[in-house]
Amino acid sequence: MKFFADTADTADIAELAATGLLDGVTTNPSLIAKSGRDFMEVTKEICGLVSGPVSAEVVALDHAGMMREADILRKIADNVCIKVPMTIDGLKTCKALTSDGTMVNVTLCFSANQALLAAKAGATFVSPFVGRHDDNGFDGMALIADIRLIYDNYAYPTEILVASVRHGIHVLEAAKIGADVMTAPPAVIRGLVKHVLTDKGIEGFLADWAKTGQKI
Ligand code: E4P
Questions:
Q1: DSSP label at 207?
Q2: What is the CA(7)–ligand 1 centre distance, in A?
Q3: Closest Cα to atom 9, ligand 1: which residue?
Q4: Parent domain of 184
Q5: Does any ligand 1 atom lie closer than 6 A to the CB of residue 131?
Q6: pLDDT tens per residue across all 216 residues of the chain
Q7: What are residue 127's phi and psi, to 5 degrees?
Q8: 0.90 cut: is pTM over it?
Q9: CA pair distance 209, 216, nearest whole angstrom
């Protein structure tokens, strides 16, 4: 399963990239606003920190506007993945860009039928938002399972990018279902390594080691 960091914070991205566990990055207009940085400048910096896909989202709502923005964004670096919304114009843009060899992430997916459309449009990634789905009384993981089933039925190559991940259980369930990618805030990714028994175990081993008086 690929791990993407859901952030535009370059310090966080650099730290996670140094672990060798980071496969890509996703941003959105809210995350860019939170960074307080210039969109083009911060996206270029992120693209230099990871070799995998970096999602940069268009803000135009019409096909021509999306194509114009995508053309600017895809010139930033070879690993830019254009993020388009789940609308007819977004899907049309997805089809045009992927036919041209550009990676596309279709975002704001909340139903399996929407994911089916993204696959038909040739999307590189589809982003179902599990956290926001759960927040609104739906079952985010049931959505992931439905999309996995549909994509496997037809051998669609579109990768399921589980987004709006809030905690480790989302990561675990997505992995069990066989999602291709998950994107999570850096704190959630760092939290995956934590376990009280691991900490306790290290403490016990070090205490016993100290008693031996030895050094490595
Ligand atoms: C990523 O591509 C999405 O934009 C992001 O995961 C949304 O997460 P949120 O629901 O926590 O804003």
A1: H
A2: 9
A3: 164
A4: 2-212
A5: yes
A6: 999 999 999 999 999 999 999 999 999 999 999 999 999 999 999 999 999 999 999 999 999 999 999 999 999 999 999 999 999 999 999 999 999 999 999 999 999 999 999 999 999 999 999 999 999 999 999 999 999 999 999 999 999 999 999 999 999 999 999 999 999 999 999 999 999 999 999 999 999 999 999 999
A7: -110, 95
A8: yes
A9: 11
Instruction: Based on the residue annotation, tell me whether 83 is a catalytic residue of this protein.
Output: yes
Alpha carbon nearest to ligand 1 atom 5, residue: 164
Ligand 1 centroid to Cα of residue 90, in Å, is 17
Say which DSSP state 129 is in.
Answer: B
To test the pocket of ligand 1, the residue of 4, 106, 164 to mutate (highest count of ligand atoms within 8 Å of its CB) is: 164
Q: For atom 11 of ligand 1, which residue has the closest CA?
A: 164
Please, what sign has the CA dihedral across residues 118, 119, 124, 129? positive
Q: What is the 3-state secondary structure (H, E, C) of 58-89?
A: CCCCCHHHHHHHHHHHCCCCCCEEEEEECCHH
Catalytic residue among 34, 44, 75, 83: 83
Q: Is 26 in the pocket of ligand 1 (CB under 6 A)?
A: yes
Helix (H, G, I), strand (E, B) or coil at 37: coil
- Indicate which CATH number applies to the domain containing 156: 3.20.20.70
Q: How far is the CA of 36 from the centre of ligand 1 (A)?
A: 17
Of ligand 1's atoms, which has the minimum distance to the CA of residue 127? 2
Counting the structural domains of the chain, the total is 1
Q: Which among 165, 169, 171, 179 is positioned nearest to 131, based on CA atoms?
A: 165
Backbone dihedral angles phi then psi of residue 145, each to the nearest 5 degrees: -65, -40
